[in-house]
């Protein structure tokens, strides 16, 4: 997968760096695996705005993704598709009896390839297996946090984790953030790096594309009044003081994680700044 810089034939294309989508099939989504998405515009059931900067955007259909990979056996990849709901690409797979499912695509997945979800599977790209059966040092993604819960970690474009150790019931994994964490060896993970790793190189080129994604403009904190933001107000162009959120929580490395959180004991090493 690669990106290309467009020629500046319009102001919006001058700085645009777009994905080539060379490994993505231009097919319509599987109708049985899509559902409609209702836009809230950031409003709750009373019609009050509870989330700012939301609204508009292109109509999207939600693709139902199989994060659990609970059906054992081999399946054939029918196509690699674009998904507007996530940064990664998705793969449409079909089992021998005709059942179809969507899964997160890994780098190197190709149309016609066979992938397996089983304890006895080989540690090859796209195969899903329990952490107790994956060789140490393997690069993995789409990792469960609890057995049978479905993949929660390392699911976005280009992300991956590494299985570094195993001891008793727990395996130690180095996560994309740099944090090392213990997870039960009964949890499942998929071999490989999540697809579309060039996503971070893309540049939208114009404000309109952000609007197509349903994101509305943001007002700078220092341009607001003191009643609206802690960094607002002051005579002239004031510094705004300590950078903080609208709720007063400091930015720039302030730790918000509870010291009494139950899962703290599973964190071997915290991420580095």
> What is the percent of helical residues?
under 10%
Major sheet attributes: 7 strands, antiparallel
**CA distance, first residue to last residue:** 30 Å
CATH H-level superfamily of the largest domain: Nucleic acid-binding proteins
Whole-number total of structural domains: 2
Q: What is the overall shape?
A: globular
Radius of gyration: 22 Å
Q: In sequence order, what are the helices and strands, one letter per element?
A: EEEEEEEEEEEEEEEEHE
Summed up, the helix count is 1
- Top CATH class of the largest domain: Mainly Beta
The overall strand count is 17
Overall mean confidence score, pLDDT: 95
The assigned structural class equals mainly beta
Output the CATH topology of the largest domain: OB fold (Dihydrolipoamide Acetyltransferase, E2P)
Model description:
By secondary structure, the chain is mainly β. The chain has two domains: 3-200, Nucleic acid-binding proteins (OB fold (Dihydrolipoamide Acetyltransferase, E2P), Beta Barrel), CATH 2.40.50.140; 220-264, Ribosomal protein L2, domain 3 (Irregular), CATH 4.10.950.10. It is 2% helix and 26% strand. The protein has one helix spanning 207-212, and strands at residues 3-5, 17-19, 34-36, 61-63, 73-81, 90-95, 100-104, 114-117, 128-130, 139-141, 143-144, 151-153, 161-167, 170-174, 180-184, 188-191, 267-269. Strands 9-16-10-13-14-15-17 form a seven-stranded antiparallel sheet, with no helix packed on it. A four-stranded antiparallel sheet has the order 7-6-5-8, with no helix packed on it. Strands 1-2 form a two-stranded antiparallel ribbon. β14 (170-174) and β15 form a beta hairpin. It is globular.
């Amino acid at each position: 997968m690669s990106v290309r810089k467009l020629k500046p034939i319009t102001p919006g294309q001058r700085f645009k760096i777009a994905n080539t989508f060379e490994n993505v099939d231009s097919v319509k989504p599987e109708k049985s695996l899509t559902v409609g998405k209702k836009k809230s515009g950031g409003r709750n059931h009373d019609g009050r705005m509870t989330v700012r900067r939301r609204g508009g955007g292109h109509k999207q259909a939600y693709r139902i993704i199989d994060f659990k990979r609970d059906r054992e056996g081999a399946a054939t990849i029918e196509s690699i598709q674009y998904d507007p709901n996530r940064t990664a690409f998705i793969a449409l797979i079909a089992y021998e009896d005709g059942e179809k499912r969507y899964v997160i695509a890994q780098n190197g997945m190709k149309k016609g390839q066979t992938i397996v979800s089983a304890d006895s599977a080989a540690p090859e790209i796209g195969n899903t297996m329990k952490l107790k059966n994956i060789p140490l040092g393997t690069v993995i993604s789409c990792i469960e946090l609890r057995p049978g819960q479905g993949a929660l970690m390392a699911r976005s474009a280009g992300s991956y984790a590494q299985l570094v150790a195993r001891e008793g019931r727990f395996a130690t994994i180095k996560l994309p953030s740099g944090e090392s964490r213990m997870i039960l060896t009964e949890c499942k993970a998929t071999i490989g790096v999540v697809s579309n790793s060039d996503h971070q190189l893309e540049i939208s080129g114009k404000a309109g594309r952000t609007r197509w994604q349903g994101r509305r403009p943001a007002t700078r904190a220092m341009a607001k009044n003191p009643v609206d933001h802690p960094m607002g107000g002051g005579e002239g162009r004031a510094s705004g003081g300590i950078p903080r959120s609208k709720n007063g929580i400091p930015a720039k490395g302030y730790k918000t994680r509870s010291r009494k959180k139950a899962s703290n004991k599973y964190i071997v090493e915290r991420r580095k700044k």
